[in-house]
Amino acid sequence: MEPTTLILFGATGDLAKRKIYPALYNLFADQKLPPSFSLIGLGRREHSDASFQAHVEQSLRQFSRREIRDSASLQSFLTMFRYCILDAGRKEDYAKLLQMVEEREQALRIQPNRLFYLSVGPEFFEKIAAHIQESGLGSANGWKRLVIEKPFGHDLQTARDLNRKLSQAFTEREIFRIDHYLGKPIVQKLEELHQTDPLLRELWSSRRVANVQITASETVGVEERAGYYDQAGAIRDMFQNHMLQLLMMVASHFPADLPRGDGRSKKRSVMEALRPLVKQNTGAAVIRGQYQAGEIQNTPVIGYTAEPGIDSASRNDTFVAAKLLIDDDYWRDVPFYIRTGKRMREKSTRIVVEFKDAKTKSGSRAPNLLVFEIGPDEAITLQFQSKDSSQLEAFDPIRIDAPVSPGNVPEAYENLIDDALHGDPTFFAHWDEVELSWKWVQPVLEAFEENLVPLHLYAAGTYGPAESDRLLAEDGFHWWFDIKPNQPSEQKEGEQSYAYHTNY
Ligand SMILES: NC(=O)c1ccc[n+]([C@@H]2O[C@H](COP(=O)([O-])OP(=O)(O)OC[C@H]3O[C@@H](n4cnc5c(N)ncnc54)[C@H](OP(=O)(O)O)[C@@H]3O)[C@@H](O)[C@H]2O)c1
Question: How far apart are alpha carbons 418 and 421 in whole angstroms?
Answer without folding.
Answer: 5
